[in-house]
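Q: Given only this backbone (824 positions), what sequence would you predict?
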């Protein structure tokens, strides 16, 4: 294509369907493109005109997001309180409650915006890449930079990044996400493939027709799951919060009935009910969930693990077994040819040379690269030979195929798993087979994997590269490939065991190789072939899977079966994978982990995508997820104890004084002070547990209930201190109780955040700053009478000291309750 020539505007306004009836040459002409691709300058000019290959997401305006903070159950309650206070003549209280609602809205909005920014960064790091021909060189770019006229390479496992027309090759594509059709569709030269289809088989060079919003289905490839289903963690917390709401409703109903008996005015009774409900509604739940998960997601990204959905962080905390692909996690995924053995009549150089002819540099396959490097290192010339067709490695057939032409003769060349190739070489003598198998066993003892190379003559060139072989393939020989074990694998496996997570190794290699690598990595020698499960009933299979250290000779589709069997045995499963056929297992596992070089479809199916190789990243991800669980557990315990304490105190106060011991303003201040601190739990210095975490709803609720009742008793004791020791009137008594509850709420967070003694770990800097500043502000308010009636420094100091001493003493029964109800 000539430099500087610009396509007509109309070329880019045509729908993808308009290209269906055009030949490849007509399509190229219409797009002013070439099979040699665009130049960087041409691509840049088109990108500037047409925009990114992305569909702009509809995002709420920041103002609308902020105003939404005034809409919902908790804002409604506070807004009712504002109206009631104003109607009863308490204008100052009404204004202050509105200010508190607004401050809470601002804080929540800022935290939500920061969390959204963190999620956007994760989405950018998980962008789909494309292999594109620019300036006559293949290069990898962000798929959003593709433009019509680009030439791209689509391989097995790729998510098609734009609407394209196949130039060369064949694809079997999954269009179920677009059309709902579950069966793969076969696409050949000049066929159109739509954006977001998945390449299930084959490889093709394609011409980009339309991008972004101009694609036929209006979808662009994405690895991030935008839809966020309710996670198990959210269900647990919502269940607990719902019970607290029921408690609040029952309590307010009981007090309301008693108030009616006492002939208290209806509006006052209504204000009592609102006060009760304000104390029971989880105002910070949505914000805390998002903030904690987004913060954890950002931390995991820094460690080399990107989450495709935030609730994956929660899932990782419960993992009790991780199934590893040997390659890339336990080994270095850096293959090299370290040995060979030739069949009679061939040399070892013949094995390498013929294998090289059945390899592709463009394929970016590790085995192909290792073979081509070996051929180059040995100076083996392949001139005079041409590769007429190439079929990349297929997990289903476990081989690569090519048709080559050398000196006028054509051959069908195969390379792949030794048992597969040997089975095809039916004319190979038993002695030759025995000799080859002996070499395979010898290489396996050293941990080397082997592949076999064979060829079958196709006869003289006839113009038909698909001609049937004249005879069965002839075995050329085998190649030994080394993939050294990672230096950190053994230590990381030990770390995994220390977390009470069982490692299981999965590999398609032979039993001998698998056992050798497994022992070297410290996983164990108890490796079996997947074939041993055949003939067992499902129960026996599940028991067997739970006992072994790994599987050899597996196909990718076996991984799904293994995950299901482990789950049947009661395990929460983590599974690593990289290929298109790993997708079902990655989706089935509680924690699907796509390794750094995984296919797009594997990444799309996984909940975690690694950006670094090795087991260490997975260990760090599990530890971080367990710390996140501890932070959310602290929030739940703190919430339940607070509700029990406040409702118990309100009921006792009403029956003692026939009035509310806390006004609507007091309750609003208490909620604000408590929620301001709990938001800072997202960065608390939580310790990761040494065992998989489980949400034991009943145990957590009972332990929290017990602690809450003790705190309610403390509050009742505070009432008597204010009344009998300090001689306070009712108005100042309300202030004393409010300050006592606020100081207690700050100390309570510091106590319940640690399942052991509270001094066993240092709280996070933000948590300490939040609790310290909150107590300082309310101490000054109580001492000098800002917003609330003045108590004086002595009485305020007594409320602080009483709260400090009681919560410090509470640490002992707290540990007892946590131990008794197995809350850890």
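A: Predicted residues:
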């Amino acid at each position: 294509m000539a430099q500087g020539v610009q396509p007509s505007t109309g070329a880019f306004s045509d729908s993808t369907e308009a290209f269906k009836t055009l030949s490849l040459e007509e399509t190229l002409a219409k797009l002013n493109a070439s099979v040699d691709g665009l130049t960087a300058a041409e691509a840049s000019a088109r990108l500037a005109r047409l925009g990114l290959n992305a569909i702009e997401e509809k995002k709420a305006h920041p103002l609308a997001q902020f105003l939404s903070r005034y809409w919902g159950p908790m804002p409604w309650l506070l807004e009712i309180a504002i109206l009631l206070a104003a109607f009863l003549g308490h204008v100052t209280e009404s204004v202050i409650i509105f200010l508190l609602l607004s401050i809470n809205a601002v804080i929540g909005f800022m935290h939500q915006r920061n969390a959204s920014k963190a999620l956007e960064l994760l989405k950018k790091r998980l962008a789909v890449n494309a292999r594109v021909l620019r300036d006559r060189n293949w290069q990898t770019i962000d798929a959003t930079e593709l433009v019509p006229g680009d030439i791209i390479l689509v391989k097995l496992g790729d998510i098609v990044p734009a609407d394209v027309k196949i130039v060369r090759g064949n694809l079997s594509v999954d269009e179920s996400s677009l059309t709902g059709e579950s069966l793969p569709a076969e696409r050949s030269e000049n066929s159109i493939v739509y954006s977001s289809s998945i390449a299930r088989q084959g490889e093709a060079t394609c011409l980009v027709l339309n991008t972004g919003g101009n694609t036929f289905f209006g979808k662009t490839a994405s690895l991030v799951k935008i839809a966020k289903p309710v996670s198990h963690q959210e269900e647990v917390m919502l269940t607990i919060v719902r019970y607290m709401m029921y408690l609040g409703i029952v309590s307010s109903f009981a007090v309301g009935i008693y108030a009616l008996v006492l002939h208290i005015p209806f509006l006052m009774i209504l204000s009592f009910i609102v006060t009760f409900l304000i104390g029971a509604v989880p105002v910070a739940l949505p914000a805390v969930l998002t903030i904690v998960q987004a913060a954890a997601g950002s931390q995991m990204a820094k460690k080399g693990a990107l989450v495709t959905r935030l609730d994956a962080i929660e899932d990782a905390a419960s993992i009790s077994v991780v199934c590893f692909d040997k390659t890339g996690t336990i080994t270095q995924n850096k293959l090299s040819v370290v040995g060979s053995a030739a069949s009679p009549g061939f040399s070892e150089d013949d094995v390498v040379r013929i294998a090289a002819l059945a390899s592709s540099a463009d394929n970016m396959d590790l085995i192909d690269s290792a073979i081509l490097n070996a051929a180059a290192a040995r100076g083996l010339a392949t001139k005079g030979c041409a590769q007429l067709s190439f079929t990349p490695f297929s997990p289903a057939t476990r081989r690569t195929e090519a048709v080559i032409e050398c000196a006028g003769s054509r051959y069908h060349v195969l390379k792949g798993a030794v048992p597969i190739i040997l089975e095809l070489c039916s004319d190979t003598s038993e002695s030759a087979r025995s000799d080859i198998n002996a070499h395979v066993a010898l290489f396996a003892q050293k941990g080397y994997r082997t592949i076999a190379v064979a060829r079958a003559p196709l006869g003289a060139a006839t113009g038909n590269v698909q001609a049937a072989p004249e005879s069965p393939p002839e075995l050329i020989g085998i190649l030994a490939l080394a993939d050294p074990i990672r230096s950190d694998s053994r230590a990381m496996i030990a770390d995994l065991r220390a977390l009470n997570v069982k490692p299981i190794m999965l590999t398609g290699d032979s039993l001998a190789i698998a056992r050798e690598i497994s022992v070297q990595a410290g996983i164990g020698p108890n490796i079996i072939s997947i074939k041993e499960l055949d003939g067992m009933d499902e129960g026996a299979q599940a028991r067997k899977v739970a006992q072994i250290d790994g599987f050899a000779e597996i196909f990718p589709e076996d991984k799904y079966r293994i995950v299901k069997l482990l789950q049947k045995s009661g395990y929460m499963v983590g599974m690593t994978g990289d290929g298109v056929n790993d997708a079902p297992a990655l989706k089935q596992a509680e924690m699907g982990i796509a390794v750094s070089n995984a296919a797009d479809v594997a990444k799309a199916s996984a909940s975690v995508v690694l950006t670094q190789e090795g087991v260490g990243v997975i260990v760090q991800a599990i530890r971080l997820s367990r710390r996140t669980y501890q932070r959310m557990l602290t929030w739940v315990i703190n919430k339940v104890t607070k509700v029990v304490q406040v409702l118990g105190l309100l009921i006792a106060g009403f029956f003692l004084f026939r009035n509310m011991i806390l006004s609507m303003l007091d309750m609003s201040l208490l909620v604000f002070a408590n929620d301001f601190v709990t938001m800072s739990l997202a960065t608390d210095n939580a310790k990761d547990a040494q065992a998989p975490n489980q949400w034991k709803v009943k145990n957590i609720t009972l332990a929290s209930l017990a602690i809450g009742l003790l705190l309610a008793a403390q509050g009742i004791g505070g009432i008597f201190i204010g009344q009998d020791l300090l001689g306070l009137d009712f108005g100042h008594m309300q202030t004393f109780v409010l300050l006592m509850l606020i100081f207690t709420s700050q100390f309570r967070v510091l106590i319940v955040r640690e399942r052991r003694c509270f001094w066993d770990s240092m709280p996070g800097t933000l948590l300490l700053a939040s609790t310290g500043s909150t107590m300082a502000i309310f101490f000054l308010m109580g001492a000098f009478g800002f917003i609330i009636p003045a108590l004086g420094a002595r009485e305020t100091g007594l409320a602080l000291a009483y709260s400090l001493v009681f919560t410090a003493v509470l640490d002992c029964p707290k540990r007892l309750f946590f131990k008794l109800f197995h809350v850890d």
